[in-house]
Amino acid sequence: MLKIIFLFHPLILLFFHLTSTEANFNFNVTYESNFTDQNEIHARISRRLRREPAVWGEPAPDYTGVQLNDYIHFLNALIFVDSKITNHYGSDMDKIKRDVMKLIQEANNYFYQINVRIIVLDILQTFRDDLSLYSFEEYRNHRISQLPNHDFAALISYRYAGGLAFVNGMCTAKTVMLCGFYPNNPTAMGGIFFHEVAHLLGVPHRNVTNLINIPNCYCPVTQRTTNSGCLKIPGYDHDCTLQQMVNMLEKNRCLRHVKATNFFFTQHIVEKSSLPLCGNGVIEGEEECDCGLRKLCRNWNCRADECLQIVKTWQMYICAWLIAVLIVTVIICCVIRRYLSHCCGTSTNYSYGAYCSCNLLQLLSNLKSVIHPKSKHFWYRTGSNFTQSLRHTGNGTIGTKQ
Questions:
Q1: Is residue 302 situated within a structural domain?
Q2: Is residue 199 part of an annotated ligand binding site?
Q3: Do residues 156 and 235 share a domain?
Q4: Which of 16, 95, 259, 369 lies 20 to 30 Å from 394 when distance is taken between CA atoms?
């Protein structure tokens, strides 16, 4: 039975989504306090039944046409699971986290395309199976001081065929959402998760007959005729709702935004403990690299699907050290050869040995002065004394040589 929910909050509307896995359609009913006529309510419900479905289990569309700025946006999510999920997995939190992260992994296929880095701080138990969106809001706000800092909290509900969220709830006490979860297909609700985050950022549902005007949304006519529409979030009726979400995200002032300084290296290192999510562009846990989605990865040294380096960092350091040693060795050999060539080309047979010895000592002194110009080592003093002794011996053949 469809429960009619009346909201009396003047700013935030509640959107109720009920998707059927068999019929593959979606109910999105918006009720305001000024609706009193029952016939009008039923007529509104009838119109909502024809709303575009939030496709269950469909892969993320290609959003390459979206207009983005030069910033990376971070969303820190804190996930809660109800007791029905806990019981299904026999209270094995490792298995719960593994499968719930598959849902977030699917949602990341949407987020990453719009420069959003979704970070899961933790997955916690509620020990409750009766939480609605409103009671979950109260549950979260009552424990807010005991929870890690997060941008929004999401309740994952066992076999709930849809999602709930407060429109424009981000950055307020209503930054909570609810999303269904099916253990037999954990990734199926990834699009719904993304859909509800769009509500939190401020994207509402509008009547099918109402047009929306998003100035920086450019949709070719051929693209509008496809099932996925043009820059449309699954479950919305209008094209350009994704661009609308991006515009609202870029204007948000409570979320963290970082300017993308390099086109090729876009991975970031997480500043707090989180659950590793390979493909979100953030190095977490034991990940060696994270260049984002495979089709968008520009790091030749990273396996995007595994977040592992092809050539390890320590191997690159060793190679760099060997190359540096080789370069220095070649330079030293070239300098020594130059001195010896000059020595052999200008000296006579009579003074050859003494002359080359002198120049070799001068070479060592020059190298030493370059490396340690202010140091006075024993070998330098000894070499200098030996040079002076050579100057005072013999018949003066090398006495004037420097």
A1: no
A2: yes
A3: yes
A4: 369
